[in-house]
Amino acid sequence: MSFGRGVRSSVVLNVGGTRYSLAREGLKDFPLRRVSRLHGCRSEQDVLEVCDDYDGERDEYFFDRHAEAFGFILLYVRHGHLRFAPRMCELSFYHEMLYWGLEGAHLDHCCQRRLDDRMADTYTCYSADDLRAEARDAWGGAEEGGGGGGGGAAPPPGGEGKPWLERMRRTFEEPASSRAAQLLASVSVVFVVVSMVVLCASTMPQWRAAENRSMEEHSRIIEAVCIGWFTAECIVRFIISKDKCEFVKRPLNIIDLLAITPYYISVLMTVFTGENSQLQRAGVTLRVLRMMRIFWVIKLARHFIGLQTLGLTLKRCYREMVMLLVFVCVAMAIFSALSQLFEHGLNLGKPNEGYSSIPAACWWVIISMTTVGYGDVCPITIPGRILGGICVVSGIVLLALPITFIYHSFVQCYHELKFRSARYGRSLSAEFLD
Description:
By secondary structure, this protein is mostly helical. Helices cover about 60% and strands about 5% of the residues.
């Protein structure tokens, strides 16, 4: 049964006492995610997971939110500019933005700086995860993103009635949640560091010498112990996870799998093929698989907020990163073609072999644009040197253009993660005092 379809061509949104009339068909593509979710509601229970109340007779949806803030958000929907409401705390307005489905990147540049400064002063912000946590606490496990629905939603499986299971999840997922979690994180860091040291040492010629076979055997034992710990940790975290499919999709868990799987593949290949010199192809494969242990170092992202901030920033700024890559590729194509022409194609002097082709000139362009300048390749003609100066200046400008957006996203991600870490730190302090 389609809920609320065919009765009226328009619906009414009541936000904090202010009523807005919208076309029903316009809900599907409405820029605010929370409003657009009303289009897919099939029952009154679905509606109450999105809004706070619903009047079926008047087809009116009630949201107990800040009316003035929603008015400014609607101005963004109509005109494309989002600014803070006057006489309203920046963090409160940011909270309202997250509720309706917007992020800090939607703010105008001046307001983004105000938000960053406010977060830097208070070390506090509200992230989407915080909103979902608040929704679960307030409505007894409402569906994700529901933060304003009616009661009666069933708690997630495995959550209620099993506090030890939830405590165990937090121990493995949140290193700052308890002393046991900190101890577990410390042990994992030690295993990661030891495995990296052994990996680096195993590539040294002295380590691989014939007289050091015992050291190689010891390194394999250490490697097996580290892999055993990582495997046990991964299996336990998979068993106690709430959603097994979501667990498999998480980037850090995929990295764990990439770091662990090559060891078992290399062991199986060694068992079935051995280290026979005639099987050169298998030997190369084994070396590649063993070198993939370098992914273990990414496991440190579970325990260090800096690496988490980097990963979250890259995830949120992928458009800016693509734009930066396009800038560099376009400039590389232009400058490499011109430099090859000036240095090798026009015969203005002795041909410069470093620019014998456009692909060869691309190497000079990229190290010039990034101001690295190894000096292995450099122009010798007057036009080539003038072009080199233009290339360096252009590289500085092009690389600086997207940095502002990436910087604001980095600051925002850092304070979100720091607030989350501080929240668990406070709970840990209370546990210690108790």
